[in-house]
Amino acid sequence: MGRVRPVLDGGTVSDHRSGTSTEDSHRLPPRIDTSVAHPARRYNYWLGGKDNFAADRASGDAVAAIFPSIRVAALENRAFLRRAVTFLAEEAGIRQFLDIGTGLPSADNTHEVAQRLAPASKVVYVDNDPLVMVHARALLTSASEAGRTDYVEADFREPDKILHEAKRTLDLSQPVALMLIAVLHFVPEEDDPYDTVARLVNALAPGSYLAMTHTTADYLDEKQIADIKGGRYGSFCPRPRAQFARFFDGLEIQPPGIVSVSEWRA
How far apart are alpha carbons 194 and 202 in whole angstroms? Predict the structure, then answer.
């Protein structure tokens, strides 16, 4: 099994405010708590999107105050997604994608890139935020009559549920690209993310790929690391290169290997 894998890195940040109105928030499903920041909506804010609330923007600004390169890192992470899906569809010949931690729709989502290159591609999106699912069902529709797009509302920590529901669309006896883009740094060590990734990978056919990005602490100073460990930004667990590499144990690394997202086949 092959795989693609880099680490998030940064640049500079500019502040760009946009948001959803109070009236809009009143029409949202009751399970969506707009008073608490959510990683998917905060990421949407950094990308310049409009599907975020005051709590998400406040949290995003607080993170940016400590990590000034965060918005550029988010943009570079999105660019990596495009390049990774292009590699998987064009060079690796992958026609099935399991994208866990979808996030809110943005430009060049996984199915758009894949189906533009290979119209018969099938994509299953997975996320645990009901707001993401609301938007996904409305906007992440198949760009090709030959392809198919499906959605699973589940947490990364529920691999059995994810795999079971993904079978509605994907044939797991054939190669699949497992996409874990900017997800695992929200899963603490006590939840054993290595085991969950291994369970997901082991359920896939030979010739499948694992594509991941992950925030690293390798380039942070002591104050930044202390701020993260203090829990100001929720469950956020940047990992050093050695820990990140463990997710790929037993897999064949694709060149250029573990590098910054901005350097991976840029």
Answer: 12
